[in-house]
Amino acid sequence: MDVLSDAIGAMRTGRPYSALTKAEPSWAMEFPAFQGARFHVVTAGVCHVIRENGPTVTLGPGDAVLFPRGAAHALENAINGDGQLVCGAYQLDQARPHPLIDDLPELVHLPAHAGRYAGLESSIALLRNELTEQEPGKDVLVPALLDVLLVHLIRAWFTERAGQQHTGWCVALGDNLIAPALRAIHDSPDDAWTVQSLGERAGMSRAAFARRFVALVGMPPLTYLTWWRLTSAARLLRTTDAPLGAIARHSGYGSVYAFANAFKREYGIAAGQYRRQRATDHHHISEWTPASADLPPELVQEAQ
């Protein structure tokens, strides 16, 4: 998987949900703080997004907003006529957000631009149609379209910001030197990566690579490698029955003992205890995707 997909997958805690909302002239609704992410897309009319600590944002047809960390806000109809919105939420684990997601602002505002983000426009149109029509297969299509929409919202924001910033994940993901190293870490977290070998993957000297990585990602390469290994291990503990030995090897640790020590240092709790406490957070994943669907082949085999 790519880095953005991994970042979302590592935080996922269940099925997303959405609704098509009619906004009558006096319509208003409050959305309390939420341990996940919320989005709103105006499909007709004009709405105001009101926040306690931020300016009011006006949304017209096709405009979208994403609250990556579920900040409290309110919506209200801004015209003397009916409006319509697609509203939804994603259940994400905000206790340990991926730094890519943490790099997003409290509110991501994406004004409609005809043809600028064709994938975003198409996913919004498809989702709206599925919510409007009662067609067979809706229960499968809607969660899938919500996942697609989240990726397109974040992708569009990073594309917008990449031309305006010189550092941060929006730049790192498109950087032709750092992006290959990030993909290598995500594709093979079990490899014995060093700053030297990652620098070679980027086609850079060790020192130059380390400086550029820190400047864009915000942490040293091996710090991020360890963070990602343990984050992906935690997801496997929550969502699968894979043995600790298999998870340790997939996470780049030579023994269960080494993995257990590293995991407890990072999370403050033993891996087995973490699995028992957090397994119920993801009990509903099986309703959407088989737990083994995101596992490497060796873990699937050992889990069966």
Report what the structure shows.
There is one protein chain. With 304 residues, this protein is α+β, with helices and mostly antiparallel strands. The chain has 2 domains: 3-162, Regulatory protein AraC (Jelly Rolls, Sandwich), CATH 2.60.120; 178-303, Arc Repressor Mutant, subunit A, CATH 1.10.10.60. Helices cover 46% and strands 17% of the residues. The protein contains 13 helices and 9 strands. It has a 5-stranded antiparallel beta sheet, covered by helices on one side. Strands 2-7-4-5 form a 4-stranded antiparallel beta sheet, with no helix packed on it. Helix 6 packs across helix 7 (195-202), helix 9 (221-239) packs antiparallel against helix 10 and helix 10 (244-250) packs across helix 11.
Strand order of the largest sheet: 1-8-3-6-9
Distance between the termini: 23 Å
For the record, the CATH architecture of the largest domain stands as: Sandwich
Q: For the record, what is the CATH homologous superfamily label of the largest domain?
A: Regulatory protein AraC
Order of helices and strands: HEEEEEEEEHEHHHHHHHHHHH
- Label the overall shape: globular
Summarize the main sheet. Answer: 5 strands, antiparallel
